[in-house]
């Protein structure tokens, strides 16, 4: 690079290091088998077509300029392959309403036109769409908040090329078309001609990115770059420029990159094409937006460590060249706001007038802002601890501010409500939750609020409680029927595998078999997106990616379902299944491990013992005192139900785990518990999933415990429980009593209503006989029969005073219904316990 004048400032430079040079295994069987990529990018639409963003933190940490490796990618279909020898001879045409139509090669574009280099942030209109999809599934896939990237683009101003063609009177639009052939024709769109002619808009024809030729994913060898405007207008693999009187009539111009009015449902948009024909709803300029990067999703601050201030950090951008003029932070749900500091790295280029990458770098002559900026706000940990959430909003120079409420629309685009990070609190820590998470098996606060039944559009982020209005109409959440009741064929695994081929791709969603043949030509992601699914179970990806409309279409391709045996074997052969099966412990903290229901034993009118079976060589892998999570798909609503349990079986037991579960059965006035209702319906041999361990207490044996990771010595336990709360307590009690060397004293106080309600009674009583001197089990009943000889009444202050006084190295373990737990907490405090010595499960 030739430096023309001496700089007083240091310019941000692209991240160094070589770009990815090998083709990932995943891509080898796809039409993109010629495209080298970086494995860190998170794929958002299965394997192919390639739509991907970097982990948000990795993107931010690279700084102002994004490496070509982490630059987000939005491909509607396969990447056109352009060999080295074909780069310079690449031809584009300039045609339509022009006096002087011509074609020109890339070589001539570089030779004949002035070359410029500009820093530009591209943002997909779908950035942050996952938040919309959680409110209600849109017709678009789930982008997180990293659907944007910044690079130094080198090329020529579009205006210079157009001027040479001499647009005629009446010409108002510049249409652009790419070389990628998609199910609905080539990708194409348009922008206003007088924008393209305006040097202030910076619209360019780019062949270079961060000082190297464009990468295949980003439009090699030539693309349009339209700064300040959604990425969708920056046509890649550019072949044609067509000057017209009307906006582009390309299919993708009509059916993509629009914000339809919020009243338009996915069904209406499919049934009434007029909505799409309204150019007023087309998106051009980006809207003002911002996001929090630090704290990251799931980041934990340990409050026991020395406290420093925490620098909150993130990004913001505006559209149409407008500068971000403020970024504000609220720690009190939007009642008050504080000003964050903003850094504009783009301005450092403004002061330079140099040559960079063989193009003139002249940001100075424009007043526009075409790049993201970074905000910071330092806050004390104490304030974070006292707050429920961090809210961020940005404003641009036209005083447009991000709104509090989401504007939900069919395509889920331009999502820009205040970015909210919630703060969860424990005794010794706080943890942050972003709205969504892209990692499998994880979720953000939005998923949780929604699952808890909150209305995410109630102006309070789905919180419930005093002063909040219930929505006038319940949110529409309809179940889509994907199966055809007439398709009753049962497939064996051999039949399914034998009949599937590249001509006739059969695939599985939710145990049902679909035949994609008739849809190969019409799939918006190209035939490849179906062909890569042939012969496999694509449930998770399919459900995550597809809209309600797409799901409704599945009915016509439904051909039957797998039989039990095929389901089991297919599940077990999935990669993840193999990975999990090769471990000596069944539970995995990150992956859901599959087990089947072995048998069910009824213990009382409302409790059953469930045995779940897994690999016979594995133990469950649960430390004493910890819990596991059970996930079941409701057979009717398909909804995932997750609850934490502590097994009653021992950790050394191989091949199975036993859960004692109290059933909350429906009554004429009350619906039953969700898990109960689902468990009631599952049959022997059916599949469920487990994950874990979780929990703050671990009993290491012989008087040693850790509580939230902190090691402690115990000489006696008081274990207070009620109902099924006995299960975690039982684990610890058994561990103490079964070890002859363990001298820890235990007092179990178990409160129930009727004698037959006492769970694990025999086991508890039998175990206590092993250590008569050091272990006691006290049962108390609120409705005892006449011949009951044990304690009577609720767990009371006098009972606790008598049996559970505080003592040196004594810890209370408490598990039971909420009301009981809070009574015990208050009472123990009253009789002299410190809260540090109580553990609630
Ligand atoms: N020819 C072509 N151009 C295209 C697309 C495409 O699929 N084909 N996707 C568009 C969309 S929606 C976006 S957001 C940007 C993404 O550019 P990138 O992949 O280089 O980040 O390219 C745009 N240009
Ligand atoms: Mo996009």
Automatic annotation (TrEMBL):
<dbReference type="GO" id="GO:0020037">
    <property type="term" value="F:heme binding"/>
</dbReference>
<dbReference type="GO" id="GO:0008482">
    <property type="term" value="F:sulfite oxidase activity"/>
</dbReference>
<protein>
    <recommendedName>
        <fullName>Nitrate reductase [NADPH]</fullName>
        <ecNumber>1.7.1.3</ecNumber>
    </recommendedName>
</protein>
<dbReference type="GO" id="GO:0043546">
    <property type="term" value="F:molybdopterin cofactor binding"/>
</dbReference>
<dbReference type="InterPro" id="IPR036374">
    <property type="entry name" value="OxRdtase_Mopterin-bd_sf"/>
</dbReference>
<dbReference type="InterPro" id="IPR001199">
    <property type="entry name" value="Cyt_B5-like_heme/steroid-bd"/>
</dbReference>
<dbReference type="InterPro" id="IPR008333">
    <property type="entry name" value="Cbr1-like_FAD-bd_dom"/>
</dbReference>
<feature type="domain" description="FAD-binding FR-type">
    <location>
        <begin position="590"/>
        <end position="700"/>
    </location>
</feature>
<comment type="subunit">
    <text>Homodimer.</text>
</comment>
<keyword id="KW-0521">NADP</keyword>
<keyword id="KW-0274">FAD</keyword>
<dbReference type="InterPro" id="IPR039261">
    <property type="entry name" value="FNR_nucleotide-bd"/>
</dbReference>
<keyword id="KW-0479">Metal-binding</keyword>
<dbReference type="Pfam" id="PF00175">
    <property type="entry name" value="NAD_binding_1"/>
</dbReference>
<keyword id="KW-1015">Disulfide bond</keyword>
<keyword id="KW-0285">Flavoprotein</keyword>
<dbReference type="GO" id="GO:0050464">
    <property type="term" value="F:nitrate reductase (NADPH) activity"/>
</dbReference>
<comment type="similarity">
    <text>Belongs to the nitrate reductase family.</text>
</comment>
<keyword id="KW-0349">Heme</keyword>
<dbReference type="Pfam" id="PF00173">
    <property type="entry name" value="Cyt-b5"/>
</dbReference>
<dbReference type="GO" id="GO:0006809">
    <property type="term" value="P:nitric oxide biosynthetic process"/>
</dbReference>
<dbReference type="InterPro" id="IPR008335">
    <property type="entry name" value="Mopterin_OxRdtase_euk"/>
</dbReference>
<dbReference type="InterPro" id="IPR018506">
    <property type="entry name" value="Cyt_B5_heme-BS"/>
</dbReference>
<comment type="function">
    <text>Nitrate reductase is a key enzyme involved in the first step of nitrate assimilation in plants, fungi and bacteria.</text>
</comment>
<dbReference type="GO" id="GO:0030151">
    <property type="term" value="F:molybdenum ion binding"/>
</dbReference>
<dbReference type="InterPro" id="IPR005066">
    <property type="entry name" value="MoCF_OxRdtse_dimer"/>
</dbReference>
<keyword id="KW-0560">Oxidoreductase</keyword>
<dbReference type="GO" id="GO:0006790">
    <property type="term" value="P:sulfur compound metabolic process"/>
</dbReference>
<dbReference type="InterPro" id="IPR036400">
    <property type="entry name" value="Cyt_B5-like_heme/steroid_sf"/>
</dbReference>
<dbReference type="InterPro" id="IPR017938">
    <property type="entry name" value="Riboflavin_synthase-like_b-brl"/>
</dbReference>
<dbReference type="InterPro" id="IPR022407">
    <property type="entry name" value="OxRdtase_Mopterin_BS"/>
</dbReference>
<dbReference type="Pfam" id="PF00174">
    <property type="entry name" value="Oxidored_molyb"/>
</dbReference>
<dbReference type="GO" id="GO:0042128">
    <property type="term" value="P:nitrate assimilation"/>
</dbReference>
<dbReference type="InterPro" id="IPR001433">
    <property type="entry name" value="OxRdtase_FAD/NAD-bd"/>
</dbReference>
<dbReference type="Pfam" id="PF00970">
    <property type="entry name" value="FAD_binding_6"/>
</dbReference>
<keyword id="KW-0534">Nitrate assimilation</keyword>
<dbReference type="InterPro" id="IPR000572">
    <property type="entry name" value="OxRdtase_Mopterin-bd_dom"/>
</dbReference>
<keyword id="KW-0408">Iron</keyword>
<keyword id="KW-0500">Molybdenum</keyword>
<dbReference type="InterPro" id="IPR001709">
    <property type="entry name" value="Flavoprot_Pyr_Nucl_cyt_Rdtase"/>
</dbReference>
<dbReference type="InterPro" id="IPR012137">
    <property type="entry name" value="Nitr_rd_NADH"/>
</dbReference>
<dbReference type="InterPro" id="IPR017927">
    <property type="entry name" value="FAD-bd_FR_type"/>
</dbReference>
């Amino acid at each position: 690079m030739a430096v023309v004048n001496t700089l007083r400032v240091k310019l941000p430079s692209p991240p160094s290091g070589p770009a990815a040079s090998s083709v990932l295994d995943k891509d080898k069987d796809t039409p993109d088998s010629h495209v080298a990529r970086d494995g860190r990018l998170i794929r958002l639409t299965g394997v192919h077509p390639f739509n991907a963003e970097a982990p948000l933190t990795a993107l931010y940490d690279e700084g102002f300029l994004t490496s070509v490796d982490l630059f987000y990618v939005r491909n509607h279909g396969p990447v056109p392959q352009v060999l080295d020898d074909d780069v310079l001879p690449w031809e584009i045409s300039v045609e339509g309403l022009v006096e002087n139509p011509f074609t020109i090669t890339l070589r001539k574009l570089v030779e004949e036109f002035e070359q410029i280099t500009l820093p530009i942030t591209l943002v997909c209109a779908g950035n942050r769409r996952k938040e919309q999809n959680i409110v209600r599934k849109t017709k678009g896939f789930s982008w997180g908040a990293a659907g944007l990237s910044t690079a130094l683009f080198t090329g020529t101003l579009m205006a210079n090329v157009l001027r040479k063609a001499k647009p005629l009177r009446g010409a108002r639009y510049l249409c652009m078309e790419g070389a990628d052939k998609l199910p609905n024709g080539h990708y194409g769109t348009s922008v206003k001609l007088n924008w393209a002619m305006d040097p202030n808009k910076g619209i360019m024809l780019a062949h270079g990115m961060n000082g190297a030729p464009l990468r295949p994913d980003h439009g090699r060898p030539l693309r349009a770059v339209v700064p300040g405007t959604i990425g969708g207008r920056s046509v890649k693999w550019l072949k044609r420029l067509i000057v017209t009187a009307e906006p582009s009539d390309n299919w993708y111009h009509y059916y993509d990159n629009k914000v339809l009015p919020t009243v338009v449902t996915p069904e209406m948009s499919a049934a009434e094409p007029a909505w799409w024909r309204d150019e007023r709803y087309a998106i051009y300029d980006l809207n003002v937006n911002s996001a929090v990067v630090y704290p990251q999703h799931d980041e934990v601050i340990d409050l026991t460590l020395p406290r420093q201030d925490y620098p909150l950090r993130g990004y913001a951008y505006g559209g149409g060249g407008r500068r971000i003029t403020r970024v504000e932070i609220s720690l009190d749900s939007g009642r008050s706001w504080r000003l964050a500091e903003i850094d504009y790295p783009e301005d450092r280029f403004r002061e330079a007038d140099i040559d960079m990458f063989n193009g003139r770098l002249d940001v100075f002559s424009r007043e526009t802002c075409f790049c993201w900026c970074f905000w910071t706000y330092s806050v004390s940990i104490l304030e974070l601890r006292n707050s429920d959430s961090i809210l961020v909003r940005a404003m641009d120079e036209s005083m447009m501010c991000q709104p509090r409420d989401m504007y939900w629309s069919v395509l889920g685009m331009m999502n820009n409500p205040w970015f909210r990070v919630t703060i969860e609190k424990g005794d010794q820590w706080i943890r942050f939750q972003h709205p969504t998470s892209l990692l499998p098996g994880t979720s953000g606060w939005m998923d949780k609020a929604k699952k808890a039944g909150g209305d995410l559009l109630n102006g309070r982020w789905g919180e419930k409680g005093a002063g909040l209005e219930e929505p006038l109409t319940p949110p529409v959440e309809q179940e889509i029927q994907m199966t055809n009741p007439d398709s009753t064929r049962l497939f064996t695994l051999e039949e399914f595998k034998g009949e599937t081929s590249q001509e006739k791709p059969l695939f599985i969603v939710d145990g049902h078999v679909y035949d994609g043949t008739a849809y190969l030509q019409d799939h918006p992601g190209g035939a490849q997106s179906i062909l890569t699914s042939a012969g496999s179970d694509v449930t998770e990806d399919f459900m995550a990616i597809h809209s309600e409309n797409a799901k409704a279409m599945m009915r016509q391709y439904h051909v039957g379902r797998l039989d039990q045996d095929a389901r089991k074997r297919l599940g077990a052969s999935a990669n993840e299944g193999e990975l999990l099966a090769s471990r000596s412990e069944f539970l995995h903290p990150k992956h859901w491990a599959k087990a089947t229901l072995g048998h069910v034993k009824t213990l009382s009118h409302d409790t059953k013992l469930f045995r779940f079976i897994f690999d016979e060589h594995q133990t469950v892998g649960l430390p004493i005192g910890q819990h596991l999570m059970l996930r079941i798909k409701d057979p009717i609503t398909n909804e995932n139900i997750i609850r934490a349990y502590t097994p009653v079986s021992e950790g050394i037991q191989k091949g199975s785990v036993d859960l004692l579960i109290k059933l909350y059965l429906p009554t004429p006035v009350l619906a039953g518990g969700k898990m109960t209702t689902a468990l009631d319906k599952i049959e022997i041999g059916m599949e469920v999933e487990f994950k874990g361990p979780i929990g703050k207490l671990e009993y290491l044996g012989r008087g040693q415990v850790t509580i939230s990771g902190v090691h402690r010595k115990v000489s006696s336990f008081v274990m207070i429980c009620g109902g099924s709360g006995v299960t975690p307590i039982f684990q610890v009690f058994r561990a103490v009593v079964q070890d002859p060397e363990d001298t820890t004293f235990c007092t179990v106080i178990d409160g129930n209503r009727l004698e037959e309600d006492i769970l694990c009674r025999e086991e508890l009583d039998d175990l206590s006989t092993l250590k008569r001197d050091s272990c006691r089990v006290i049962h108390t009943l609120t409705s005892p029969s006449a011949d009951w000889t044990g304690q009577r009444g609720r767990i009371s202050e006098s009972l606790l005073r008598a049996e559970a006084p505080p003592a040196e190295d004594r810890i209370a373990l408490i598990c039971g219904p909420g009301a009981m737990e809070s009574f015990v907490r208050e009472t123990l405090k009253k009789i002299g316990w410190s809260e540090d010595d109580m553990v609630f499960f």
